[in-house]
Prior knowledge:
Layout: H1 9-17, E1 21-26, H2 63-78, E2 82-87, H3 97-108, E3 113-120, H4 127-139, E4 141-149, H5 153-158, H6 165-177, E5 181-188, H7 195-206, E6 212-217, E7 220-221, H8 225-231, H9 240-252, E8 259-262, E9 272-274, H10 281-294, H11 301-313
Parallel strand pairs: 1-2, 2-3, 3-4, 4-5, 5-6, 6-8
Antiparallel strand pairs: 7-9
Amino acid sequence: xxxxxxxxxxxxxxxxxxxxxxxxxxxxxLTCPNRDGTKGKGGCIYCSSExxxxxxxxxxxxxxxxxxxxxxYIKQRHNAEKFIAYFQINTNTYAPISSLKKFYxxxxxxxxxxxxxxxxxxxxxxxxxxxxxxxxxxxxFLWLEMGLQSSHNKTLELINRCHxxxxxxxxxxxxxxxxxxxxxxxxxxxxxxxxxxMFSTARFLANLDIWGIKLHHLHIHKGTKLEEMYKRHEIKPxxxxxxxxxxxxxxxxxxxDVIIHRLCGDTARRFLIAPDWSVNKFIxxxxxxxxxxxxxxxxxxxxxxxxxxxxxxx
Length: 314
Ligand code: SF4
């Protein structure tokens, strides 16, 4: 049964592990095939690695040092007990399999780490990588995060993702076949997308066997191609109300058992160009919760209506 109006990751982890679970960000020092020329150059137009860099990171630190330091820091601030080791920055399956094995095993080698999360691209998960992750998933809780951003190939081309929605669906299928949980990343408010197109991304995901979804609003980081477009007045980010309503509409289309990892992005002011409201995640979340309450709506409510209508007509 849902405690909130949506199925949040924090509630899921609390139920599973009996206490609040915190993520520790780790940097394996990998790059991305969309930057090094293998798939593309320059990366996705919104991408900037800097805001995701683990706190106090320096490039001489190995995984073990980052992990122990990160855990100590979070323990002191939050009285935390359990952790998910999280490879968030860049493409964390883009290395020889022996290196990946070492990274992941080191990340799990702490008595308070209860799981592993690995963020990557759908075109960087072959059989070998998925077999390794499936093996680890038998021993520890694990999920794989993959960027979809939009189910519309014209948008993926515009934002320079250098993969298609079909590539994403194929990778989800390969992971599902091995019992690996997949969390999809989606951005709402991408250039040129209509509301109906954003809802159809929700329906695209609802029809895949997705375990989790992470929603972000389009926010413009310093030093990105998006910043140049913004300064040329080629794009206009969504307003807070518009975005919050979009999230609520989006959640209505997502099955209620899908775990919602995030409802928005948040960025420190020093990295941000626009929109201004991006700097306070709590205000955004409050607004989304308030709208859900006002509209008396829930994650998956539209799916229930579709099912009821189908039953009536059958
Ligand atoms: S968003 Fe991901 S895929 Fe795109 S350039 Fe950045 S790291 Fe690479």
